[in-house]
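Revision sheet: C-alpha cells.
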Amino acid sequence: MSHRILIVEDDQFISDMVNESLTKEGFEVTAAFDGEEALEILNTQTYDIILLDLMLPKMDGIECLGIIRSKSMIPVLIMSAKDEDVDKALGLGLGADDYISKPFSMIELIARVKATLRREKHYMRSQSPEVEKENKNNIVKIGNLSVDMSGFSVTKFDKEINLTAKEFQILKLFISNPSQVYTKSQLYNSVWEDDYHGDENVINVHIRRLREKIEDDPSHPTYIKTLWGIGYKLGDV
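Predicted:
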C-alpha cells in the first residue's frame, strides 16, 4: 500500500511539479490550494504526511497547522520561502516535523519526505507494548534532563519538555556520542539523513529552538556547546 500525501500549496506550478514528482515515486497524492480546503479534505480523509506552504489564501499555514495539531500528530513538512515564517511556526510549538526552504530541488524534497516517513514508522514502533519495557530501561540522565532515548520524551525537573521530532533527534545524537564534535554537514547527514546542501538556517533554527527548551540560559548554553568555526558538541554537564 502506497503512502498518502496531502500537498497544501497555492502556487499551481509548484503544486503540479511536486505532485508529479511524488506520484512518479509511487506516492498517492492529493492537492489543496488553501488552508480551508486542506482542513475540509482532512475531515474526510487520512494521510501519512502533509506538505504545507505557509503563505496561503483564506487561512495561512500557521493557523492551519495549529488546527491540524489540535486533532492529529500526522507528520507535517513545511515548505516556505520566508525563513521568518518558518521560525515563527517552529517557535510557536505547533509541531512541524521538518521544513524545506524554497526554492528546493525535487530530489531534496523526496528525500525529506522519505526520511520523515521512516522516522514516523520508527516512532510508532517505539509506542507499541512490545517495546514498553525497553523504553523504561533506556532513560539517560544528563544534568537536569531525563531523556527517554527509546520513548522520544524529555523531562526537566520532572516537567515534560515538548520537543519536535527533529529537536529530539539532535539531542539524542549528541547524548549518544558525547565526545564527538559535529560539523553542520555531519549533523545534517545524521539527523536529516540526506546530503548537506549548505542551508545553515535549517540547522541554526533547530539548534536555537532546542536550546530555548532545554537550557537554563539559552544565550549561554551548557547542554549543546558551539565550537566556533567547527560545529557543536554535548557540553560537560
